[in-house]
Specification:
The chain is built from 3 helices and 2 strands. It has helices at about 30-50, 55-65, 70-100, and strands at about 5, 10-15. A two-stranded antiparallel sheet has the order 1-2.
Length: about 100
């Protein structure tokens, strides 16, 4: 028989995972994990609403332009960037294989 004190209402409960008075979790790891999840959600919401900076903002503006040539340019620049990243990754992979 093990008594666990509730962190919210300070009542003692006998061998339970949840407080019989207030219904909060008595498992410390579970309550910490729930608190971390809430903090992560709040941080993600804060970052989602934050204004974009630098090239990200410029690219977003180009992507949503009314003029089709500007949107095509944005798509082309992104495509060229992805090809560049792919080629450099392939070169790094080949060099690492031959290096040993």
């Amino acid at each position: 028989m093990k008594y666990i004190k509730c962190p919210n209402c300070s009542k003692f409960n006998l061998n339970k995972d949840v407080c019989s008075s207030c219904g909060s979790s008595l498992l410390i790891t579970e309550s910490r994990r729930q608190q971390q999840l809430v903090e992560r959600e709040q941080a993600l919401e804060k970052n989602k609403n934050a204004p974009k900076k630098g090239m990200e903002r410029i690219y977003q503006n180009m992507k949503t332009q009314r003029l089709k040539p500007v949107r095509w340019l944005a798509t082309g620049v992104k495509g060229i960037w992805l090809v560049f990243i792919g080629v450099t990754t392939l070169i790094a992979l080949v060099l690492s294989v031959f290096a040993g």
